[in-house]
């Protein structure tokens, strides 16, 4: 399958977001690909509020079956969530469960004015009523469950999308 | 013990009974898991949903307000329901055995027991009983048993040392005080040697050292000034007055003179040495106020890290 160029998708995403971003909007990236993407968006949109990051390991709904991820990173929300517009940023939108977990976590920091979701790619396969307001690319056919699509960043900081056959 | 009841067949943590028997990568995994939990205390809502719907029973057969409270806070920050049973004042007085108490609580759908007991091995006994009666989803955390072990204290001390000193393999660490009666000391020494600390020193009067202490892999010093020379970490122990039987010590004043940590003695350690104490402190007995409140003391950070470490242990146990 031909994957689009990550840099072109990021440009499209910036173009979609720019008209509707408020001056006090804050971005929150979901580890790991979402944080990389949020860093780029934060720079390109020249947002005033510092960027946040979230690791949803503690909010997942499959703890009983999968256990705790051993390398969870600390979440970092360096701004006051209360009353602020927030955009959650992730590289790929799939079942929606990660977004659900990120929403739950975000609300433990306060009550945001509104929350939107920005993703590079929507791969289909939703299991929850969640959609991205900003989305650079939708796959024509949903990816099957044994395939994993993710953003990668090389040593020079260049982005690419990678499709992996899961075991 | 032939098998290690703390780990399941896949090497996951099933019970936390002692640091002895935990491989170093498991200790490191617990410390790594604790790290992101330290941030939860800074949130508006200090709660994570990891133990939502689980019931944690604090079974304290021996009083310890501090330890019980930190376990309670840890479990509540993970959204568990916490039930505190002060067993020393309840059913055991009516003649119920330890295992009958456990069976009754399992019948109330307990998911985890946090056990403090004056007898060494009581948490082991409970864990074995749960295995024997095939209740693999009920977990035991040792919160201190007799003179044997206090693993979460040992782990939070390791977390504190790693936070300030990063690399265990370059450290000289002194454990000072009543090592004979101290389950904390035993857990600390096992953890330090497992994590590769090249020199662990035990500083104590002869009467407060177990006879086989050198088998734990420590260098023994009876002179505190000699023992503190160039150490990176000073781990003070509480003088356990309530456990003192017979004439092990002449007087607390005499003890302070020889084994109390003063600024003058601490000056013999490295200039950036840190001072730990498990609490509660006896000021003027094992530690001078000037040191306890000084810049090298990390005693209050220990308490804060202790909650994150206990959250890590409980959430690792609750898996699967």
Automatic annotation (TrEMBL), chain A:
GO terms for molecular function: uracil phosphoribosyltransferase activity. It comes from Candidatus Methylophosphatis roskildensis. Keywords: Glycosyltransferase, Transferase. The keyword Cell inner membrane does not apply. Residues 8-132 form the Phosphoribosyltransferase domain. Pfam families: Pribosyltran (PF00156). This is Bifunctional pyr operon transcriptional regulator/uracil phosphoribosyltransferase PyrR. SUPFAM superfamilies: PRTase-like.
TrEMBL record, chain B:
L-aspartate binds at residues 94, 183, 238. Catalyzes the condensation of carbamoyl phosphate and aspartate to form carbamoyl aspartate and inorganic phosphate, the committed step in the de novo pyrimidine nucleotide biosynthesis pathway. The keyword Transferase applies. NCBIfam families: asp_carb_tr, PRK00856.1. Residues 14-162 form the Aspartate/ornithine carbamoyltransferase carbamoyl-P binding domain. Pathway: Pyrimidine metabolism; UMP biosynthesis via de novo pathway; (S)-dihydroorotate from bicarbonate: step 2/3. Gene3D superfamilies: Aspartate/ornithine carbamoyltransferase. Belongs to the aspartate/ornithine carbamoyltransferase superfamily. ATCase family. Keywords: Pyrimidine biosynthesis, Transferase. One of its GO terms (cellular component) is cytosol. This is Aspartate carbamoyltransferase. InterPro entries: Asp/Orn_carbamoyltranf_P-bd, Asp/Orn_carbamoylTrfase, Asp/Orn_carbamoylTrfase_sf, Asp_carbamoyltransf, Asp_carbamoyltransf_Asp/Orn-bd. Pfam families: OTCace, OTCace_N. Transmembrane segments: none annotated. Residues 171-316 form the Aspartate/ornithine carbamoyltransferase Asp/Orn-binding domain. GO terms for molecular function: amino acid binding; aspartate carbamoyltransferase activity. Carbamoyl phosphate binds at residues 66-67, 116, 150, 153, 279-280. Heterododecamer (2C3:3R2) of six catalytic PyrB chains organized as two trimers (C3), and six regulatory PyrI chains organized as three dimers (R2). GO terms for biological process: 'de novo' pyrimidine nucleobase biosynthetic process; 'de novo' UMP biosynthetic process; amino acid metabolic process. Its EC number is 2.1.3.2. It catalyses: carbamoyl phosphate + L-aspartate = N-carbamoyl-L-aspartate + phosphate + H(+).
């Amino acid at each position: 399958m031909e994957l689009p160029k990550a840099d072109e998708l990021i440009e499209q995403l910036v173009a979609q977001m720019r008209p509707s971003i408020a001056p006090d909007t804050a971005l929150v990236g979901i580890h790991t690909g979402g944080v990389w993407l949020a860093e780029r968006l934060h720079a390109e949109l020249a947002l005033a509020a510092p960027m946040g990051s979230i690791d949803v390991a503690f909010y997942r709904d499959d703890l009983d079956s999968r256990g705790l991820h051993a390398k969870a990173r600390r979440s970092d929300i360096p701004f006051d969530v209360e009353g602020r517009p927030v955009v959650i940023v992730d590289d790929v939108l799939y079942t929606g469960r990660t977004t659900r977990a990120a929403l739950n976590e975000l609300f433990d920091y306060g009550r945001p004015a509104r929350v939107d979701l920005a993703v590079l790619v929507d791969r289909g396969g939703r299991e929850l009523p969640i959609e991205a307001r900003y989305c650079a690319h939708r796959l024509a056919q949903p990816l099957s469950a044994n395939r994993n699509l993710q953003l990668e960043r090389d040593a020079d900081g260049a982005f690419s999308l990678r499709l992996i056959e899961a075991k | 013990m032939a098998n290690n009841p703390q780990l399941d067949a896949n090497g996951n943590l099933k019970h936390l009974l002692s640091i002895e028997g935990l491989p170093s990568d498991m200790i490191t995994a617990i410390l790594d898991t604790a790290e992101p939990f330290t941030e939860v205390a800074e949130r508006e809502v200090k709660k994570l949903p990891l133990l939502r719907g689980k019931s944690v029973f604090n079974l304290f057969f021996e009083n310890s307000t501090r330890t019980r409270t930190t376990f309670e806070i840890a479990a509540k920050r993970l959204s568990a329901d916490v039930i505190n049973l002060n067993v020393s004042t309840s059913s055991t007085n009516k003649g119920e055995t330890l295992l009958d108490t456990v069976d009754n609580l399992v019948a109330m759908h307990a998911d985890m027991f946090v056990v403090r007991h004056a007898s060494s091995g009581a948490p082991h006994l409970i864990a074995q009983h749960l295995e024997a009666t095939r209740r693999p989803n009920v977990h035991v955390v040792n919160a201190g048993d007799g003179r044997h072990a206090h693993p979460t204290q040992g782990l939070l001390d390791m977390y504190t040392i790693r936070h300030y000193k990063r690399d265990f393999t370059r450290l000289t660490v002194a454990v000072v005080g009543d090592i004979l009666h101290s389950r904390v000391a035993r857990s600390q020494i096992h953890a330090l040697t497992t994590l590769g600390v090249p020199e662990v020193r035990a500083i104590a009067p002869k009467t407060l050292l177990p006879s086989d202490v050198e088998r734990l892999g420590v260098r023994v010093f009876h002179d505190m000034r000699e023992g503190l020379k160039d150490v990176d970490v000073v781990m003070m122990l509480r003088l356990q007055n309530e456990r003192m039987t017979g004439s092990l010590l002449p007087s607390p004043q005499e003890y302070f003179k020889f084994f109390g940590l003063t600024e003058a003695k601490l000056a013999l350690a490295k200039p950036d040495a840190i001072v730990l104490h498990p609490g509660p402190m006896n000021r003027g007995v094992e530690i001078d106020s000037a040191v306890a409140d000084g810049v090298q003391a990390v005693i209050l950070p220990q308490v804060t890290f202790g909650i994150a470490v206990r959250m890590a242990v409980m959430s690792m146990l609750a898996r699967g």
